Amino acid sequence: MDQSIKAYIKQLVQEAIEQSASSLNNLPPGTGRKQYVIANWKMNKNIQETLEFLQQLKEGNGVEVVVCPPAPLLYPAKLYVQGQKKEIQIGAQNVHQEDKGAYTGETAASLLKEIGCSHCIIGHSERRQYAQEDDATVNQKAKQALKRGLTPVICIGETLEQKQQDQTEKVLTKQILGAMDGMDVSQVVFAYEPVWAIGTGESATAAEAQRIHGYIRSVLEYLDVQNAEKVSILYGGSVNENNAQEFASMTDIDGVLVGGASLQVDSFQKIIAVFAKGA
Ligand SMILES: O=C[C@H](O)COP(=O)(O)O
Predict the structure, then answer these.
(1) Which domains, ranges and CATH numbers included, belong to the chain?
(2) What pLDDT, on a 0 to 100 scale, did the predictor assign at position 176?
(3) N or C terminus of the chain: which is more exposed, having fewer CB within 10 Å?
């Protein structure tokens, strides 16, 4: 990273720390930005469970509700919500970066679009860990998703070790600059998911998350000062019906990406209701 970027990032970190105190003063959430509640089911649920869940799930009342089931369930899920005329969107958990070809086991963005997906999660920490996806791959996948009309939900976040070594801002900056290379920031959604908070029951505090979201927005401003304010930045990591309200009250937290608590329709619906109040 060249020296001028390093100096700029240092300044951003300082500003984000200073701003975090003022942004905690109960400012209204998400100044006009879309509010999202996204379910990432990971490798859970079968067809019957999916349809039962979607049958019970109500619309978002101004919140963008996106359900991301495993790949084989995307099409039945889409057909079901379409048949019910429900404003619930269906998103994929992954996409391949190439248009088509000899990529066994992969799914093309064009096919996801054809079956009615609206969004695609990209760069989830589990993909980074188990499928060795790096920032360059995330960038290629996000470009491919956009090319085919899917909104990328780009996941970033530090590990526990990186947090303990005070590397959070540095790691996030690298992930953001890598993911956004040659891209228009206004076209994507970001999800800040600290790896240490995923599936552990130990979420970031809302204040911590707000400070980091403010920092992420500062880096987006560095890339595109005009559009950074429009980008929805979601928090993910042990969100549940009990802590959702605290996250929703933060000015730079524009929704949540929910794993475990999205598997039960009741708890997921309660999280949606929290964000619908502010939407
Ligand atoms: O994509 C969702 C995240 O990995 C969060 O999962 P979790 O809510 O089970 O911690």
Answers:
(1) 32-278 (3.20.20.70)
(2) 97
(3) N
